[in-house]
Amino acid sequence: MAKTVNIWIDDKHLEVPDTMTIIEAADKHGIYIPRLCYHPDLPPTANCGVCVVELSSAPVPKRACCTPVAEGMKVVTNSKKLRAYRKTLVEMILSNHDVVCPTCAANNKCELQSLANNLGVEPDNLPSILHKEAVDDSSLSIIRDVNKCIACGRCVTVCNEVQTVYALTFADRGIDSHVDTAFSLGMANSPCVNCGQCTVYCPTGALRERSEIDAVWEAILDPEKHVIVQEAPSIRVSLGEEFGMPFGSVTPNKMYAALRKIGFDSVMDTNFTADLTIMEEGTECVAKLKAGEKRPLITSCSPGWIKFMETYYPDLADCVSTAKSPMSMFGTLSKTYYAQENNIDPAKIVSVAVMPCTAKKFEARRPEMRDSGFQDTDYVLTTRELIRMIKEAGIDFANIPDEEPDKGMSFYTGAGTIFGATGGVMEAAIRSAYFLVTETDLEDVEILAVRGLEGVKEATVNVPGFGDLRVAVAHGLSNARKVMDRVREGLATKGESPWHFIEIMACPGGCVGGGGQPYGNDIASRARRGQALYAEDRSLPVRLSHHNPEVKKVYERFLGEPNSKLALKLLHTHYFKRSVSTGQVTGEATHKH
Prior knowledge:
Elements: E1 4-9, E2 12-17, H1 22-28, E3 52-55, E4 62-63, E5 74-76, H2 80-95, H3 111-118, E6 142-144, H4 154-162, E7 169-171, E8 178-180, H5 197-201, E9 207-209, H6 213-220, E10 226-231, H7 252-262, E11 266-267, H8 270-290, E12 297-298, H9 303-312, H10 326-334, H11 337-341, E13 349-355, H12 359-364, E14 379-382, H13 383-392, H14 414-417, H15 424-438, E15 456-463, E16 467-475, H16 477-493, E17 501-505, H17 523-539, H18 549-559, H19 565-571, E18 575-578, E19 585-590
C-alpha cells in the first residue's frame, strides 16, 4: 500500500501517495504544469522537457512527468527562469516544424499550437531549420506527416506498449532521432493494424486519418447517385461534445437531422446491423455450443483486431466468427436488400459509413468485401471528418431540431447501441444467445460483469439446457494478446479453450475510444461515453436484438433465417495470414462456412 508524503507545490501543502510523480500530484490537486509529450494515459517518455519545475533540493530544473514525489519536497512550477526555459524549448520545436496551422487537421486541437499561444511564442519571428520530407500516404487509413512530428514518442508508446503492434519506432540517434516505420517502408508495409490510436495521442497533426470528405461531397452533389449513410453506435455519444453540448450527450436525432441537411438521400443507422450481427454471430455461437466445440468463438466486429489476429494469431483464425462487422453487413445490404426494396439500381447507390474508427477505412477496401457485386461500403468517414462536414455546411448542431431516420435499416435496440462500449457486444450476444438456446428471454438483461474498463473481464452465465457459459472480454490489443495466448495454451495443453465466447475490441474502451473519435480522447472520456450508451440502452423500448422488427423483416423478405445460405454468402467472410514484418497477405487462414 502506498505511503503518504507531504510536499509543497507553489507553497501549497499537499498530502499525496509516494507512488506519484510531481505532475500527477499537481494534476490531482488542480495545479497545472505545462506539458507536451506527457499524457496521463501513457507511461512518461520525458522527451520534450516542457514540464520542468524547480526543486529546493536540486540545482537544476527537473522534469515533472518522471520525477517522483518525496517527503518534504518543495516545488516551484512558475518562475522567470522556467518561463524562459519553456519558451525556448517550444521555439526550438517550432523552428523544425511545418507551421501551417490554418490548413492542419489538428488546427485548434493541437497541443503544440495551444502551448505556443499560452507562452507568447511568435512563430513568424523564428528561423526555420526544417528540411521537408515526403508525407507517408501509403496507408489506406492513416497519413503520417513527418514534417509535423515533434518526436514526443506518444505514438511509439501507444503502438508498442498499449497495442503491442510495433509498427512505429525511433530511428537513428541524438539530434537525428525521429519516429519511423521499419526500414522506412511506410505505414502500409508495416504491421500497422490501422487502429488509429497513434492519431488519438499525437499532440500535433503529424498523424491523421486519410480523408474521404471530398469524395463524399462529390457523391452527394451528383444527381445520378443515391447516397445512403449509416452511423456507428458511438458516434451519437461523441458528436455533441464538439459543439458545446455536455460531455456524453446522446444525440441520435440531431445526428440524423445534420446528415439529412448535409444532403444524404437516405439516413439510416449501423445499430440496425449491430442487431443483425447478433443474430448471425449468436446463431453461430449456439451451433458451436450445441456441437460441444472445444474451440471458442471470438467476435469479429473490430477491423483493427481482425488484422492483428491475421498478423499475430493466424493459427487461431478458425476461432473467429465469420460474421462481417455491422458496417460491412450494412454495406452489403444497402446494395442488395435496400436496392431491391426501393427499386434502385445498386450501381447508382453510394454507401457511406460514419465510424469512430480509422481501421474501418481499411476494412471497406478489403478485396473480399464485395459480396453485393460492388464494393459494399464506398466511403468511410471518421467522427472527426463528419464534424468537419457539419461545420463546412454551417449547421448549428446543438440547436438543430431533432429528426427521425429513414425506415428500413435504422430501427435499433438497446443491445445494438451498447456495441460502442467494451463488453457491449458480449452483453448483446448473451441476451440473444440465451433466447436462442432456451426460447425464453433473460429476466435481467444487464450483464454487469462484462462492463467496465478492466483490461480483461471474465464472467460465467448459466444457460438452462447448456450449463455454464464462460465468456471473456478484452479491449486494447495488449489485452487481446493475453487472452489469445491463454486460448492458444489451453488448446495446446488441454485441447480446449478457457472460454466459450470471447469479445475483443482493438481500441481501449471499445469503439467509444476509436482512432477516429474527436481529439482529446482519453480513458476518462471513453468511460463517460460508454456510460451514455448504457443509459440509452436503458431508455429504449426494445433491448434485445432478436426483437428488432426491421431485423425480423429482412429475414422474412430477403435472407430467410440466420446463417441461411444467402446470409452466409452476403453477411459472412474469411480471413488471411499476414506477415509480421510487413502486414501483407501471405496466404489463406480460414474459409467461409
